[in-house]
Design goal:
Elements (H helix, E strand, L loop, with lengths): L2 E3 L15 E5 L5 E12 L2 E8 L9 E8 L2 E5 L4 H17 L2 H5 L1 H7 L1
Length: 113
C-alpha cells in the first residue's frame, strides 16, 4: 500500500471526518473499501486509521500519514519502524480517550450484547 491520492472520483473530502469510507488501491490493484476510524495527530504530522469494511472490529487497522495540500488529500505509507511504533501508540491513546462505542456506532455495540 503505497499512496492513495484523492481526486474528484474519490469517496473522500477534505473535512477531518469527511465520509465514513475510502477506497484504497493496493499494489496489486486490488481495491479495499475501508471505514475511517479517525484522523489524529502524532508529533508534527496527521495520521489516519482505516479499518477494512469486511474485517469487523477485530480486524487489522491500516495506519497512514494523512497529508492535506489545499483541496488534495494524500495517504502515505509509514515506512520507518520507529515512526510506525509512535503512530500506533498515539492511535491506542486516541482509542483510550474515546468511547469505543462512539467510534463504531451504537448499533454494532448492541450486537455484541
Amino acid at each position: 500500500m503505497d499512496k492513495h491520492e484523492h481526486g474528484d472520483d474519490c469517496n473522500c473530502s477534505s473535512d477531518e471526518f469527511f465520509h465514513d469510507q475510502v477506497t484504497l488501491t493496493l499494489e496489486d490493484d486490488t481495491e479495499v473499501v475501508c471505514d475511517i476510524i479517525a484522523v489524529f495527530p502524532c508529533g508534527e504530522k496527521q495520521y489516519i486509521a482505516l479499518l477494512p469494511e469486511d474485517a469487523g472490529e477485530e480486524g487489522e487497522v491500516f495506519l497512514y500519514e494523512f497529508i492535506q495540500n489545499g483541496d488534495e488529500i494524500e495517504l502515505e505509507s509509514i515506512e520507518d519502524d520507529a515512526e510506525f511504533e509512535a503512530v500506533s501508540e498515539a492511535f491506542d491513546e486516541f482509542l483510550d480517550s474515546e468511547e469505543f462505542d462512539e467510534l463504531f456506532g451504537e448499533e454494532e455495540a448492541e450486537d455484541e450484547e
